[in-house]
Amino acid sequence: MEKTIDWIEKDFGKLDILVNNAGIAIRGHVLDTNESDWDKVNDINSKGYFLGTKFAGKLMQKNNFGSIINIASIYAIVGGTLSFGYAASKGAVRLMSKAAAIQLAPYKIRVNTICPGFAATPINKHYRLTPNAPEVVSIRESIPLKGFIPADQIAWGVVYLASDESEWVTGTDLLIDAGWIAQ
Amino acid sequence: MTNRLEGKVALITGSGGALFDSEFGLGFGGSSAFRFCQEGATVIVSDINDDTGQQFTEELREKGFNAHYKHLDTTNETEWKKTIDWIEKDFGKLDILVNNAGIAGRNDLFETTEPDWDKVNDINSKGCFLGTKLGGILMRKNNFGSIINIASMFGIIGSKASLPYHASKGAVISMSKAAAIQLAPYKIRVNSVCPGFAATPLNPFFRTESESSIVVGRKEETPLKGFVPADQIAWGIVYLASDESEWVTGTELVIDGGYTAQ
ipTM for the complex? Predict the structure, then answer.
């Protein structure tokens, strides 16, 4: 992370926007979650965002400007049957974003999360590969707008939070979940 | 001018209370009307202040925008019906409804009377219900729509400010979620926007009493140190109104300079 930020500073002179998006989905009931699964999902989904926020924040601080967008999840807000370490990692993202928003506000660096609902992305390829599987059908039916969220919708939310249209938006979560959490 | 709302018909309640050069600037409704126009929408400005409402609409038209004015007291179901019938007749559809009309309150709990409660809840909460119902009936015919309800960060957290105001804004957030679920089958989305402290015509004391301890305190308590410009709320509403948020429903967009994250 440090090397990347140094290179950005050297080659581009500044960093205005950081999207902490890298993540993995590990499914598993709490009683079946082993320590190595926990470490892996929390290292990537949670520690990775901390490092990004820290090193990008240092470069943004020099310019007194920046927007950091952390991709969390609906499972940062509610619990589910099939994910435990993942939920913990996304909950951590959500709260570290709020803490960072407060701590970086003096430098006019904004920090927000996006909480996607069930999205048909490469990480969830079974939504497309087996659309009629009972599990996939039941997830789709549980979504008020009846469908999986296109990745492009998440992209538009990220654009909004990255742009100056959201200059006064910080420390909050933008839910793009087709109404799932509202039920 | 871009085209994020091209071809869309939008009604914004309480959007005619100020003019472009008004002392306290445009409020959330007026700022949204302006941004909606810029993004290519047909905009219906509505208000109970007909003089400024008509004048503001004229200002928009002079800029070449497609703006119209309609008197609308949002607490009156008959007026809502008339307005929606007129929109259907003249424009054929309604794509976007912004339930923005609202009032503030600063009373201490023990000095709050029953009429105080009724007034703020009638305008802020019942007005929003009537709009959602009547606007929803027209949107349903088209299986399309986006309803944006202006709540407040005081619909999420408590404060020393007026208790009925908090209650009314909490109601707006909850009814938006219920409406989102109930209108999802018709592809009508319903979301709320929760502004933080904003220096709008509704809160003139933020400017007229800028040295007072309450105003300085509110500014200092906001992590980004200042009042949220009405235009920032307008941009949030544009996002929720546009197809960029096609899969966003039943949620709150908080635009508060970080206040509720603390």
Answer: 0.91
Point out the catalytic residue in the list A49, A75, A86, A127: A86
pLDDT at A100 over 80: yes
- What is the DSSP secondary structure assignment for residue B202, as one 8-state letter? T
Confidence band for B207, pLDDT divided at 50, 70 and 90: confident
Residue-level pLDDT at B206:
84
**Does the structure show a pLDDT above 70 at A145?**
yes
- Report CA Rg, chain B: 17
Cβ-count burial of A21 within 10 angstroms (0-12 exposed, 13-18 middle, 19+ buried)? Answer: middle
Cα-flanking dihedrals φ and ψ of residue B9, to 5°?
A: -105, 125
Q: Cβ separation of A105 and B250 shorter than 8 Å?
A: no
A107 assigned to active site: no
Q: With contacts defined as CB-CB under 8 Å, which chain A residues touch B262?
A: 102, 171
Neighbours of B108 (CB within 10 A): 10
CA angle A77, A155, A124 (to 5 degrees): 60
- Residue A52 tokens read as 């990004």
Pick among B238, B247, B249, B252 to test the A interface (most A CBs inside 10 A): B247
Whether B39 shows a pLDDT value over 80: the answer reads yes
Interface test with B, best of A70, A163, A169 (most B CBs within 10 A): A169
Question: Strand (E) positions, A22-169?
Answer: 66-71, 109-116
For residues A2 and B182, give the distance between their C-alpha atoms in angstroms, rounded to a whole number. Answer: 49
Give pairs for A122-125: CB < 8 Å, separation 24+. Answer: A123/A23, A123/A24, A123/A25, A124/A25, A124/A148
